[in-house]
Specification:
18% strand; 3-stranded mixed sheet; Immunoglobulin-like; flat; single chain; alpha+beta; 5 helices; 4-stranded antiparallel sheet
Length: 233
């Protein structure tokens, strides 16, 4: 078991180093596609898990890997999904996410109180009366058996049940555990376990501040408008 734990730690460290080398930093801003307003509080999901959120000014930054599925979402807007291609060679990406409003109009809503059905009330009442009668009969039968019945000391099932209850009480009072349920622990297992308890698993690095200059934002807006014109043509 200790060998498995040591190998697990080495694999975790190797995988962590590999992820650090292949991480890609994404910096950008979330903008309303119609009004051009920056959208703060937008959620960023990576492979279905919430990983980041845009700030009050709409800017965001996060780390991701190739082939990850990134989803930008905000209440009242259509989500945008982006799959990071495995052909991406750069270590840092500047992006601008435009979200389109997703409004759904609903008509007038009428609220009408539901009147209770007389047949339903009668059925519920008769069902409750039947359950009450059954409970009374069961109590009477149990009381009669308690007065007239007597457990035989030679009954095997009764003796087994009494012995099992006695063992439970003795084990609880002594604080003991049955010998067949005690697992052996090797002292070599304590070293990696203690390391994990003290240091814990390696933490994911936090993304740096999403600093975006005005010039970068203008360039992103220009590219977005060009893509819209090409789509219309």
């Amino acid at each position: 078991m200790s060998i498995i734990l040591v190998i697990f730690l080495k694999v975790c460290a190797w995988g962590q180093n590999r992820q650090e080398k292949s991480r890609i930093l994404f910096r950008g801003v979330v903008i309303d596609a119609e009004s051009g307003e920056r959208l703060g509080g937008s959620q960023v999901y990576i492979n279905g898990l919430l990983s980041a959120a845009s700030r009050d000014d709409g800017t965001f930054s996060f780390f991701a890997l190739k082939d990850d599925t990134v989803r930008f979402a905000r209440l009242g807007y259509k989500p945008r999904i982006y799959i990071i291609p495995d052909t991406l060679r750069t270590r840092e990406v500047l992006t601008c996410v435009f979200l389109s409003p997703d409004t759904i109009g609903i008509g007038e809503v009428l609220i009408i109180p539901k009147l209770p059905s007389l047949s339903t009330v009668m059925m519920q009442s008769s069902e409750q009366d039947r359950l009450l009668d059954n409970a009374r009969n069961n109590i009477s039968a149990a009381a009669y058996q308690g007065r007239t019945g007597q457990n035989k000391l030679g009954d095997p099932s009764m003796n087994y049940e009494l012995l099992r209850q006695k063992q439970k009480v003795e084990a609880y009072e002594r604080g003991g555990i049955p010998s067949d349920r005690i697992a052996g622990i090797s002292p070599f297992m304590l070293l990696p376990a203690a390391y994990l308890l003290i240091h814990g698993l390696p933490e994911k690095p936090e993304a740096p501040e999403p600093q975006i200059s005005g010039r970068e934002l203008e360039e992103l807006n220009r590219l977005y408008k060009e893509s819209l014109r090409k789509g219309r043509n």
